[in-house]
Amino acid sequence: MIKIVDVAREAGVAPSTVSRALNNHPTVGEEYVRRVKVAAEKLGYRPNGVARSLRRQSTDFIALIIPDIGNHFHTAVARGVEDVAREAGLSVLLCNSDEDAAKEATYIGVALSEKVAGVLLCPHNSDSDISLLTENSIPVVAIDRTLGENIDAVTTDSVHGAREATAHLIREGWTRPGCSAGPTDIETAKWRAQGYVEAVLAAGGEPIVEHGTFDQQGGADTAAALLDREDPPDSLFVSSEQMALGVLAELKRRGLEPGRDIGILTFDDTPWAQLIYPPMTVVEQPAYDVGAKAARMLVERIRGGSRLEARQVSLPTRLIVRGSSLR
Amino acid sequence: MIKIVDVAREAGVAPSTVSRALNNHPTVGEEYVRRVKVAAEKLGYRPNGVARSLRRQSTDFIALIIPDIGNHFHTAVARGVEDVAREAGLSVLLCNSDEDAAKEATYIGVALSEKVAGVLLCPHNSDSDISLLTENSIPVVAIDRTLGENIDAVTTDSVHGAREATAHLIREGWTRPGCSAGPTDIETAKWRAQGYVEAVLAAGGEPIVEHGTFDQQGGADTAAALLDREDPPDSLFVSSEQMALGVLAELKRRGLEPGRDIGILTFDDTPWAQLIYPPMTVVEQPAYDVGAKAARMLVERIRGGSRLEARQVSLPTRLIVRGSSLR
DNA sequence: TTGAAAGCGGTACCAA
DNA sequence: TTGGTACCGCTTTCAA
């Protein structure tokens, strides 16, 4: 392994000069820069990132802590994050927390130990303890959910999206929309249920909310519970794409056809939403942009913006009407 | 930031003893271990991973270089990798290469600079240059595609899967299957086209292969090209899930219904495959297992198995017949 | 502008 | 078994 002293010897200069030359320090003579670069090239020198990190007291890593990369929304977020990070010369540490506070805490520990430059966290809930990070001045940007007023956050306007979607159901003539909602301790799930409730109440109706896990099973369970009621809803607002998969399976099992026997729409647009029959009406979230924006904000913090006011950005959702919600 | 000397002072021992105690070195007296752990706990000591890495000449990171985390197959692979890595105390660096040799090379450089413990690479093609890694004894395991006989690889049996799928189409009574194939320079695409060709020839038919990119656009393009032929195929073997989305869109545009007007099946099972109408027949690949298995093999190499023979593991695919391929 | 040298925070060798 | 200390490779201050 070639190191800096080897290059220095080859170029006939001091190690410090090599370091400066290679890092484009302005105070190095042109002749020296050339000599150093030639020597480095000749020897195939590759700087040791670990040593640099130790000396500089900071790395070029950022940690991305999300519940599950398998979830389509988070996949897109990750893609946005990675694109911006690469652009900024940062590498992404992928951490799946599985909505598990313990795993989340473990990863926060890793982020600290490994001295990451910053953390993007989709927190299990607002109680997530990031004090270890803030105490050590490691910038944090919350994704999709918030972490209190003092922490940067990029979210989507779930309340508005859910309200708009539910109002659309009612406008279409469905008289009794129900809600397949996510876990009560997850902020986005709460927001979406809230938007739903607001819209139903505004129309003088009675909200019917069933909470379940934020996955396929949760979708199937809540759909079953709602439809097994004595006074079942005639349409469903589903809180997430993963849940929608479960809901659709349950409807299929019961021989219920969306858009005919029951109205249905869901959060998150997916590639398959328009391929199923009938095509699924969705509340689209700009997932990629959420990731990209959050990453950009984190980069700003890393580049020295610690004195900036905390910024809470909410990106707009968009209702895409397809067949499943029509009457 | 508390460091090891602080703990040493608090515990009244030498720094080396603290290090040994905290790393469960067997030669430390119980009393000392206790004192050190108490002191560390009291001061809230967190080891500095960067310093440890520099001294040990190795980190606890592995790089996962895949074309695109947005691709369902790779998402599942990533999940498998991450689960095994966490179990082994390793963190995953996420790198999207976008099937771009330059980006791939960049990330290989990062892996080297950052002294990762190992690399999982889904190579753009067999020419991918990993000499930087092998020369520096950084273990590499290829995922989904191979890197020559000397490098560990975990793949799925694409040839067999494609042959079985195409044979199924023919058995169902489709007389002229065509193939929406991926790029000619990607190994898996070649394998799948090969399996398709073998099956068609075995049945005495004429292979019709159209190559396109491994994405939605490529699916739409190849489907259009195939169907615009003077002697169009009456059924399609599609090379990947992403392509299938494009193919389906193109069929829809032309008013062709799978399983009635045209037979169709694709590689990769997805959550939506059984929700569309008709449900999609697929060749399922054990994506999660591919990632998990590859990660396990990499961990073995990292834990000192550099003298092991290179192992090439091929995981079986499974044909899942649904409606889209029936006649 | 360049060079010498002191660390960054652990680890592991060597001596006691 | 424990302590002292050199060292991992780079950056950066200080002196020349």
Automatic annotation (TrEMBL), chains A, B:
Keyword Transcription regulation annotated: yes
HTH lacI-type domain span: 2-56
Xref: SUPFAM superfamilies: lambda repressor-like DNA-binding domains (SSF47413), Periplasmic binding protein-like I (SSF53822)
InterPro entries xrefs: HTH_LacI (IPR000843), LacI/GalR-like_sensor (IPR046335), Lambda_DNA-bd_dom_sf (IPR010982), Peripla_BP_I (IPR028082)
Protein name: LacI family transcriptional regulator
Pfam families: LacI (PF00356), Peripla_BP_3 (PF13377)
Keyword Transcription annotated: yes
Keywords: DNA-binding, Repressor, Transcription, Transcription regulation
